[in-house]
Amino acid sequence: MAETNRRQIIFVCKKIIDLFPRSSFEKDPFRVLIATILSQRTKDENTDKASKKLFESFPDVYSLSMAKPSQIYDLIKASGMYRQKAERIIKVSQIIVEKFNGKIPANLHDLLSLPGVGRKTANIVLYHCFCQPALAVDTHVHRISNRLGFVKTKTPEQTEEGLKKIIPEKFWGPINGAMVEFGKKVCLPRKPKCQECPVNKYCEYFNSIKFSENGKN
């Protein structure tokens, strides 16, 4: 990759981080881990509702590890797939108590060993709770990075690998939250608001649309 192009990518990342900062994030590793599992395939507002109700009744890993799935169905129903998620988060809690003495592991290998915990969830925990350089790639980061032309990848895992090669470590953590906000407000999954986008002149997708429209004239 040409150095000029890399500098442009870093500039765009910084601009997105500055313009779309993520609001304050929970710092408790246990709550972040469970909330992120609940967030799978649902909207943030549903995750927030489910997490709030769950933690009001089961505030720590020990109480949740002793719960029965049926006890938390209604609490987490808003998050969707509540039966599967109930079994998963209770199993995760039990493993943390039995294998890790009630402490959320602070390394990628052990986090990935937990059922239902993928790289995105693990990286969110590592960055927000343990201040480690970690790049969480969800659907927003994957979509936006490809639209902008940062990478040309087919999976979030490939996107994570590609972004790590071109983005400085100091941006790894912040870019996730910023792109989530950017993706919800401007770079929407369908019908992105390209004309309103503050980085559209650097966007491969936007420039391809302009070229296509000009060609029709």
Automatic annotation (TrEMBL):
The record's listing under InterPro entries reads: DNA_glycosylase, Endonuclease3_FeS-loop_motif, Endouclease-III_FeS-bd_BS, HhH-GPD_domain, HhH_base_excis_C, HhH_motif, Nth
**Which GO terms fall under biological process for this protein?**
base-excision repair, AP site formation
Which PANTHER family would you find in this protein's record? Answer: A/G-SPECIFIC ADENINE GLYCOSYLASE/ENDONUCLEASE III, ENDONUCLEASE III
Q: Which reaction does it catalyse?
A: 2'-deoxyribonucleotide-(2'-deoxyribose 5'-phosphate)-2'-deoxyribonucleotide-DNA = a 3'-end 2'-deoxyribonucleotide-(2,3-dehydro-2,3-deoxyribose 5'-phosphate)-DNA + a 5'-end 5'-phospho-2'-deoxyribonucleoside-DNA + H(+)
Q: What is this protein called?
A: Endonuclease III
EC assignment: the record states 4.2.99.18
Per UniProt, residues of the HhH-GPD domain are 38-185
Query: To which protein family does this belong?
Result: Belongs to the Nth/MutY family.
CDD domains documented for this protein: ENDO3c
One Pfam family this chain carries? HHH
Query: What keywords is this UniProt entry annotated with?
Result: 4Fe-4S, DNA damage, DNA repair, DNA-binding, Endonuclease, Glycosidase, Hydrolase, Iron, Iron-sulfur, Lyase, Metal-binding, Nuclease
Binding note for cofactor: Binds 1 [4Fe-4S] cluster.
Respond yes or no to whether keyword DNA repair is given for this record: yes
Binding sites annotated in the UniProt record for [4Fe-4S] cluster: C187, C194, C197, C203
Q: Which GO terms describe its molecular function?
A: 4 iron, 4 sulfur cluster binding; class I DNA-(apurinic or apyrimidinic site) endonuclease activity; DNA binding; DNA N-glycosylase activity; metal ion binding
Give the protein's function: DNA repair enzyme that has both DNA N-glycosylase activity and AP-lyase activity. The DNA N-glycosylase activity releases various damaged pyrimidines from DNA by cleaving the N-glycosidic bond, leaving an AP (apurinic/apyrimidinic) site. The AP-lyase activity cleaves the phosphodiester bond 3' to the AP site by a beta-elimination, leaving a 3'-terminal unsaturated sugar and a product with a terminal 5'-phosphate.
Question: Which cofactors does this gene product need?
Answer: [4Fe-4S] cluster
